[in-house]
Amino acid sequence: MKFSKALEGYLLFAPTKYAAATLSHYSDTLRMVEKHFGSRELNSITSEDMQKYFNYLKNEYKPNRITRLGVEPTLMTAAGVEGYWKAIRSFYNWAETAVKCKRPDKNIARPKYMLAPVKAFTREELKCIMYAAEWSTVAKTEVKQAYRAHRSSYKKDLALLRFMLDTGLRVGEICRVRIEDVDLENGTVVVRPFGSGQKTKPRIVYLGKSSRHSLWVYLADKEYDKSDSLFGVREKGILTLIKSIGAKAGVEDCHPYRFRHTFAIEYLRSNRDPFSLKRLLGHSTLDMSNHYLDILEADLAHFHSGASPVDIIFK
C-alpha cells in the first residue's frame, strides 16, 4: 500500500478523538508529507528516510511566512517541526494497527524548543477591560451633559470575562461548559473532556465570590434548561468579543489565552504550587506550569531589585 492511500484511510477513519482545529492541522501537515512520500510504498519508508525528512524540515525547508516586510520564505521554527512530528506520529499510531505497517517514526525524537514568552495582563489592564465590557462609550451632545450607559450585553460579557480569569479554561473548554456543570453555591465547575475523552480528562475548577455573583446576575434574567451551554457562544464569538473589548479598553494584544496566562501567574503568586496548577489547567506534564513559575521568579527578582529593604534603608 502506498503512503498516499494509507493517508486517505487515516483522514477518513482515524481522527474522531481530535478537536476540529487539531484535525485540520494534522490534515494540512500530512498533505505536505504526502508530497514527499506519497508515491512510496508504506513499508519501504525506513527510519533513515524519516530522519532525512526531519533534517530537511529543520535545515532546508522554507515555508512562506507573513512578516512586516510582506510574505517571505523562512526556515521552519522548532515548534513547526514539532507539529510535523506530532502529525506523523498520529498517522503511524493509526496505520500500525489499521494497515499493519512498520514504524519508521519510532526512533525520531520529539523536537525540543523554547516555550513562547508568556504575557499576562497587568491588574490595571484588567480593570480597563472589565470597565469596557460593562459601560458604553461616554457620549456628549449639545443638549445633554456627558453620560454613559450599560452595554446591552454587559451582564453576559462580565460573567464570561470573570469566568475566564477565575478558571483559566481554554476557549474550547468554556464552550463545552453547560449550566448544570456549574455549582454557584460551592463555586465548582466541571470541565468536560473533548469527544471520547481519550485525549483529555474531566476535572474540577473553581470560581471566587465575585465571579459567582456575576454568573448569578447573568443567569437570573435568563430562561434556560440546565443542559444548555453556559454562555451559548462559539470559539470565534469569544475571540471576536475579547478583541473588540480590548480595543475599546486600549489594551494591546488582547486575546483569550492571556486570561489563561494571567490566571496561572496570579495563582502562583498566591499559592506557589505548580502541581495543583497543572491539574487546574489540564496539562499533561509540568513543563508549562514550571514555565509560569520561571516567569514569576523573574518577576519577583525584578520587584525585589526596586524594593530591597537594605537598599532602601541604607542608600
Calculate the terminal CA-CA distance, rounded to whole Å: 77 Å
**What order do the helices and strands follow?**
HHHEEHHHHEEEHHHHHH
Task: Give the domain tally.
Answer: 2
| CATH architecture descriptor text of the largest domain | Orthogonal Bundle
Outline:
elongated
Strands, count:
5
- The low-confidence runs, each spanning 5 or more residues with pLDDT under 50, are 307-314
> Order of strands in the sheet with the most strands?
3-4-5
- What fold name stands as the CATH topology of the largest domain? hpI Integrase, Chain A
What is the CATH superfamily of the largest domain? Intergrase catalytic core
CATH class of the largest domain: Mainly Alpha
Gyration radius over CA: 24 Å
Number of helices: 13
Mean pLDDT: 86
| Alpha-beta content class | mainly alpha
Q: What portion of the residues fall into strands of 2 or more residues?
A: 5-15%
Fraction of residues in H or I helices: 40-55%
Described by strand count, sense and barrel closure, the largest sheet is: 3 strands, antiparallel
